[in-house]
Anhydro-N-acetylmuramic acid kinase
Amino acid sequence: MTVRRAIGLMSGTSMDGVDVALLETDGETISAFGPTGYRAYSPAERSILAEAMAEAPALARREDRPPALAKAEGLVTAAHAGAVNDFLSRNGLSPSDVDVIGFHGQTVLHRPQARLTVQLGDGAGLAAATGIPVVHDFRAADVAAGGQGAPLVPVFHAALARWAGLAPPVAFLNIGGVANVTFINPGGSLAAFDTGPGNALLDDWMRTRTGAGMDADGATAAAGAPDEALLTWLLSHPWFDAPPPKSLDRNWFSPGVAAHLDTADGAATLAHFTVRAIARAVEASGGPPPARWIVCGGGAHNPELMRLLRERLQARIIPADEAQLDGDFIEAQAFAFLAVRSLDGLPLTWPATTGAPAPMVGGVLATPPLRQSAAFAEPA
């Protein structure tokens, strides 16, 4: 297998910004981790993305781009192009130093049961603006075949476990806007699925109640008491009883369910909801309970969520950084890894990770024109 140098890009359901990571890999093993970078979305940009998110549920076809989504797609492409070009400049790299970009795009709608998933971002435009080949549209083939299209990262989690010497059974838990888990069982078999809400409900709650974009250090949730009756009702939703693999749209649940509570009790209830949904996932994994959980994503920085996880799971809960992994950039690294796999025709998903009928190759390759275009370059 050929080792390639790849850039991975991730803009998650928290809609805070663009993560950038460089990885050297042959799509099976990790040769080296490179530098990382971040490009934040401004409040005005987050507002544009929120408008697109609000309009997306009306979509009937994944290629449709009504005005709000077209505007957001232009923003997403320009922001990612700016993030890549700035990253190259900061690290003394040229486009010829990079073999491929893995471009996830911005998910605005995910309804796999309707065989519909929409990630905003123009792969051809990004290739033109950076001068680097781009693999994009990672989820579509899996969803079209009847899979969930998510999570996509489990094959990279398995590579990370091998690199870090983490013996199974071990779980990788990503708490982004939506939370997802990969169980690596003895013998190396994988089981993976979304567990339920991650940070999205709590972030939206804090934004509505306080104007803050998050519960800093989990302080508000820690000061409140959960509404047990509401938690029982939330966890009785049929989605939690559905067998995996399964995935969840960011807006499936609304923070409005806690509207009758004060700010602290509402935050506590939503934090407990995230953690108890994660705990339910152990029963559905089909394997032995993992002795170690490697936690990444924004939730790894929330002390209250981490405390609740330790209390509920009764296992070693380890932030990814303590396992010598860069927990804030694992998903960006994963899309670099997946881009290389896509170039080599290797599967990205399996029946046990997305419910696809067979191992699925995914991603669409866009190559840059001979002369680089500035069509999607950010203004100076």
The chain has two domains: 4-147+331-366, 154-323. The domain at 4-147+331-366 is CATH 3.30.420.40 (Nucleotidyltransferase; domain 5). The first strand starts at residue 4 and ends at 11. The two ends are 40 Å apart (CA to CA).
